[in-house]
Amino acid sequence: MARAAQLGRLRVGLVWRRARLVERRPQNATARTLLFTVEGWPGHLAGQHVDVRLTADDGYQAVRSYSLAAPADGERIELGVQTVPDGEVSPYLADGLPVGADVEVRGPLGNWFVWRPGRTEPVLLVAGGSGVVPLAAMVRARRRSRGGGDFRLLYSVRGPDDVWYREHLTGGDGLDVRFVYTRTSPPGDSRGPGRVTAADLAEAAAGLAPTSPVYVCGPTAFVETVGDLLTGLGRDPATIRTERFG
Length: 246
Hints:
Blueprint: H1 2-13, E1 16-28, E2 31-38, E3 49-55, E4 61-67, E5 76-82, H2 90-96, E6 102-109, E7 123-128, H3 132-145, E8 151-157, E9 175-181, H4 198-205, E10 214-219, H5 220-232, E11 240-245
Parallel strand pairs: 7-8, 7-10, 8-9, 10-11
Antiparallel strand pairs: 1-2, 1-6, 2-5, 3-4, 3-6
């Protein structure tokens, strides 16, 4: 019975559904949150993603994957889109797709890189740039559930102007957020600019249980470096869940 239910969910995720853009919100100079309504959306878990399909007038199609930026909310979904210079899809989605226009989405996809309400152990989230999108969904899902263990977010970003979801990443209520600025740090930042180090991760991981999950999302090189540093600090690789792009 459980296997049949799982297969059913997988088949649901393979269906293409029409999604209508209802709102676009800027996150920074090159990043947008796109809000869609999707008729018949089955719901999703924080950390999952969707495939987006665009079809040109001549029939040409392009498909890209985007993380869901918010927990399930009926037939409404939010996607985080970072414009890629000379990209085929992201510039159009980020700034060209008219509000009220339709695309197709397939999902939700991915069942490993997810956070489920009801977990009580502390959690470490490590984000590189736009890799914060699915982690922000986890933060928002935890707050909505009004429970769960403490969250710590270590967010590596070029500078203060590049931060996504600042309104959702305020500390307190069991959430501790630490920024690592790689190029430009704000006045008063004692750390100074630089890439994530073992010391940064050791401080962020202090207090985790041996079985606490660690979610790492960002560009491939960032994810691989962070994974190596975490295992070097003694974290069990089985507790490290990664999502990468690029």
